[in-house]
Every structure is written in structure tokens, then in C-alpha cells.
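Subject: Lipoprotein structure
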Amino acid sequence: MMGKGLKWGLGLGVAALIIGGGSYAYSQHKSQQETKTVTVGIVGDSDRRLWEYVKEDAKKEYGIDVKLKTFTDYVQPNRALADGDIDLNAFQTVNYFDTQKTKYKTELTDIGKTYVTPIRLYSDKLKSLDKIPDGATITIPNDPSNAQRALDLLEEADLLKYDHSAKLPSASDITDNPKKIKIKEVASDQSVSTLKSADAAVINTNYALDAKLDVDEALYVESVDDAHKGYFNLIAARKGTEDKQAYKDIVKAYQTEKTVKHMKDLYGTAQQPAWGKYAEK
């Protein structure tokens, strides 16, 4: 027969296993619950409107609670992501992403494309491109990626030419300027306000939409083709976290035909999907 001491010891062991197993199951459940809440950094209210729909689908289809954190500039969201203050961000183009990774040495990675918004040249004073006078002042974004994008736009519009061998081109790299246009570099989030003083301004679409500018009244619109795929927007995560199922599910919740419809309803021609079959156009 088994001694009382041995029975007591086995009982303790079984109890410990049950308690330990319960603790492990609880910690696993808690961990799973934590991964179901994902904070996404975005820029501006125009993006928020679309993400509110994505939030609903992520919750309904995958049980993920998406929390949105809105930033007002293009620098903070990548810093916040790198520091772990947010889980994902969705606001930037491929070119801007690559530039920021190099500049700040951030360990971030692209986990899915979202949309493309052709950048545009706007004016409160002029009605058409051919009305831009000699000596006009045009403002462009001052961060390297968007500055190059603005110069590409102005070159495509036959207003100037610049040195394409420049690694991070700016206004100082302009080589041909027949109208002697004055290029003024400003922070992207200040570009709309420059319409009051400048003759025209190159403005990122999210800021244009936030300011209720009519994108169809722009003086010039960037082409959307293979040469401009660096301007497709993306969802970014920290390296090492990109395989989390919740993150993959958020990308799936975004990349749907429902999102395409919401995009068209919200933004008209200002924004176009940039994933799957849409990216192959």
C-alpha cells in the first residue's frame, strides 16, 4: 500500500501541476488578448475616416480591436513605431519610408500596401498651369522624399529641370528654370497655409483633403504608373513583429473591395488602391 507521506506528496504535485497549468493557460490567454489590440499610427483626419471602416472590419472579421493614434507630421509616426509606442503605422510612401529608415536607422519593415495619392500643384490665385507668371513663387515640401517628388512633378509639368544625380535633390539642384520660378521649401504640414502668399504650392493629398481643397481643381496632377511605384503608401511594423497574425489580419482587413468602395466614396479621384491587381496597372 502507498504510504500517507507518498500520497500527500503526489497530491501536492498534482495540485501544483493543475495550478501551474492554469497559470500557463491564463498567461497564454492574456497574451492572445493583448495581441488582439493593435495601435495604428496615422497622419491627418482624412486617413482616419477610411481607417474607421477598416477598424469595423478588423473587429468583425478577426476580433481585433484597432486603436488609432493620429499624428500631425510625417516624422513622429516612425519614431513612435521604432520606440514601441504604437504597433503599426500607415501614412507614408515607399520612398519616404526608405529615406527615413536610412536617416534614423530604424528597424522597420513594410507589411502591405494601402493606396496611392497623386501629389498635386494647387493655387488660390491661378486657374491653369499656363497662367503661372515669370518669377512666381511655388512652395514644395522640405523633407527629402517629398521634395524630390515635388521637383519631379514640376519637371513633369515642364516648369523646370533638376539634377537627377543628386542623392537627395532639393531646390538648390535645379538646373533649368526658364520662368525663374522661386522655389520655397516648407514643412509638409504647412504647405496648405502657403497658398495665401505663394502663387502655387505642391501639397500632399492627405493635407489637401484635410483642408477641403478640391483635388479636381489642381493645376497639375502627378502621373500614376510604374515609374511612380515609389509613391505607393504602406503599412509598417517593427522588424521581428511582422509575422504576428493580428498584423497580417489588419492588412487583410484593409485590402478588400469594401475598402476600395469606401476609398472612392470618401476621396473620389484623390486616392486609389495600391495592392494586388491594382498595383499591376
